[in-house]
Design brief:
The complex is a heterodimer of chains A (306) and B (313). By secondary structure, chain A is mainly α. Helices cover 78% and strands 0% of the residues of chain A. In chain A, helix 7 (164-190) packs antiparallel against helix 9 (206-243). The longest helix of chain A has 38 residues, at 206-243. The termini of chain A are far apart. By secondary structure, chain B is mainly alpha-helical. Chain B has 14 helices and no strands. Chain B starts with a helix and ends in a 7-residue tail after the last helix. The chains are: A mainly alpha (306), B mainly alpha (313). The interface between A and B is large, with 41 and 46 residues.
Chain lengths: 306, 313
């Protein structure tokens, strides 16, 4: 092949790659379109938006300081002043729930973020290199996944002690193999594409190929997985705090509130009911969004719907 | 099938070894000297030394690892630091409760999940389908510990229909079943929703296939086709997720046992974790991991049995 032919061939492949990234943008637009059209997706997005707003602006939204006690007014039912009532030391339940959104958001976003940042590169490198690297990485993933995650989380939380950072790291540890596996599978199918061969023949280094050519193209299933995982992490944070292994009082976390409600189950049912409603609504919001995303990304499903 | 069976069974050996290594290294992960952590700050040097001896901590690492694995192979999981009972007897007395709890939740979830899923698929795009879809979505979204708290609040504390705490009188099956109902419901809900959705989706896919169309053109009634022909293929993904489900339910059992104060392996582990009773934690986690690995193995094998294509990959 002459020099000229090679360069024509390369530019053709490069164009096909550019078209692919254009398709990616179209896909995102398509997702937004489906979410806007689907009432379920809209509900899910609004619930998540409300939670995020509460997390970001809790000092301005919450009517009271979450730790302000009013012993004389404890176990109060809903009233114009305390919209959802007060808990066992007279703290405003609504304010505590709003501040609890902060903890939930920080834990879930950080742990999913770390899991993605660790899992995706590991999976992509394993698939791209193959051989022994691939084998070792897969073995690591398999071992971590061979424990029931609850029990690992419990044991690690007990060993490393309760703190925000530890919870985030433990949750990230139990979930990164899932991202690694998805990234690996995606990379395996994508690395034989023409654009990667073109990039390699242009002399791009492995690092550059992985970072700027493979990563952007394998992200979409990972984003869906991460979206679903956010809800799981929120649940975990609450579950650990509920068991007393997560954040510690007086931090306001939904799990801690539920725990305190459990202690006063005979006297103050509202102390269980409010955090339970908030937790279930949050989980529902995430499921609805994930469901819509799944439909949006799966054309077969969409046709069946139309 | 035999070849696949052997390959798959041998495949769990490296995982098991890594699990053992992880459990063995737990003692080094504990911050500080294990003996003083377990005994607390007021321990005298003599007490520390005795504990170190009884745990075998005065021996070199490889000797301890060898002893540990040797002991496990002989069913000896060590002794509880606090009560002195052997860990295996503690676990064996708790295990039946957890197994009954998880298996009945699994069974209920699979039974109702499959029926609801197929029902929704047959009546696609009708009110039944929408109802099943919405309900299962809600069921999936309720975390099991929240469900357990709410059930306890409504049915035990408020309505007084069910006992509040415990696993029931030993030997009295009626009483034990009565104590089992709420915990099982709390565990079942989420998994039921998951299976119903899974079965609905796969049945819809299968109902679209040619062999079903042929059956329909012969005039076979829809319900007959769905349960007799479509379900067999639609059920395969459900079988594949049973291993996953056992892991999930074992985890849920930890919370449910704590909330309803039921005896069980989850309660053994949580109690041991808060008492820092390391041998019991190690033993409990080992058994839980073993159950999980075996369930996954069983799921994979039955998957291969139902779907011959898996065997030849």
């Amino acid at each position: 092949m002459t020099q000229e032919k090679v360069s024509i061939e390369l530019s053709r492949r490069w164009d096909s790659y550019k078209r692919k990234s254009h398709l990616r943008i179209k896909k995102i637009a398509q997702i937004i379109h489906v979410i806007r059209r689907e009432p379920r997706g809209l509900i899910g997005v609004s619930i998540i938006a409300i939670i995020l707003m509460c997390a970001l602006f809790s000092p301005w939204i919450a009517p009271f300081d979450p730790n302000e006690q009013d012993i004389a007014n404890r176990f109060a039912g809903p009233s114009p002043e305390h919209l959802l009532g007060t808990d066992y030391v007279g703290r405003d339940i609504l304010s505590r729930l709003i501040y609890g959104a902060r903890v939930a958001a920080v834990v879930s976003i950080c742990s999913v973020g770390i899991a993605v940042l660790v899992g995706v590169p590991l999976g992509a490198i394993a698939a791209y290199n193959g051989g022994a690297v691939d084998y070792i990485v897969i073995l690591i993933f398999d071992v971590i996944r061979s424990f029931p995650s609850v029990i690992v989380i419990l044991v690690l939380a007990a060993i490393f002690g309760p703190s925000l950072l530890n919870i985030i790291l433990i949750l990230a540890y139990t979930s990164f193999p899932a991202y690694g596996r998805v990234a690996r599978a995606q990379t395996l199918s994508f690395k034989e594409e023409e654009c990667i061969i073109a990039a390699r023949s242009l002399g791009a280094t492995t690092g550059r190929i992985l970072l700027s050519h493979i990563t952007p193209n394998i992200l979409s299933p990972i984003i869906v997985l991460a979206g679903m995982d956010l809800a799981v992490m929120i649940m975990w944070e609450s579950a650990l705090s509920f068991l007393g292994l997560g954040l510690q009082p007086p931090t306001s976390s939904w799990g801690i509130m539920l725990r305190q409600g459990y202690t006063y189950i005979e006297t103050a049912p509202l102390m269980i009911i409010w955090p339970a409603i908030v937790l279930i609504t949050t989980m529902l919001g995430c499921s609805l969004l994930a469901e819509t995303l799944r439909v949006a990304l799966n054309p077969r499903e969409r046709e069946a719907d139309e | 099938m035999l070849k696949y069976f052997v390959k798959r069974v041998l495949g769990i050996i490296p995982t098991l070894l890594c699990v053992l290594l992880f459990l063995f290294s737990l003692i080094y992960l504990l911050p500080g000297d294990p003996a003083s952590v377990m005994l607390g700050p007021r321990a005298t040097p003599a007490m520390v030394e005795t504990l170190n001896k009884s745990l075998g901590l005065d021996q070199p690492v490889y000797v301890r690892l060898g002893r540990y694995i040797w002991g496990i192979l002989h069913g000896d999981l060590g002794e509880s630091v606090w009560s002195g009972h052997s860990v295996s007897s503690l676990i064996m007395s708790a295990l039946p409760y957890t197994i009954v709890l998880t298996l009945s939740s699994m069974g209920l979830a699979a039974f109702f999940g499959i029926i609801l899923g197929v029902l929704a698929a047959i009546h696609g795009k009708t009110i039944i389908d929408h109802l099943v879809t919405v309900l299962s979505l809600i069921a999936v979204s309720v975390p099991d510990f929240v469900a357990a708290c709410l059930l306890l609040l409504i049915f035990s504390v408020r309505l007084r229909l069910f006992p509040v705490l415990g696993g029931g009188e030993a030997g009295n099956i009626v009483d034990q079943t009565h104590h089992l109902i709420l915990p099982v419901i709390a565990l079942t809900l989420g998994w039921l929703g998951y299976i119903a959705r899974l079965v609905r989706d796969t049945t819809l896919e299968v109902l679209d296939m040619d062999y079903i169309k042929v059956l329909r053109s012969f005039g076979a009634p829809m319900r007959y086709i769905a349960y007799k022909y479509a379900l067999k293929n639609a059920i395969i993904p459900v079988v594949a997720t049973i291993g996953l489900g056992v892991g999930k339910l074992l985890g849920g059992a930890v919370f449910v046992e704590m909330i309803f104060n039921r005896p069980g392996i989850g309660k053994v582990i949580t109690d041991a974790v808060s008492a820092r009773d390391l041998p019991v934690v190690q033993g409990g986690v080992l058994i839980a991991a073993l159950l999980f690995i075996l369930a996954n193995l069983a799921a994979d094998l039955s998957y291969a049995y139902f779907d011959p294509r898996i065997r030849y990959k």
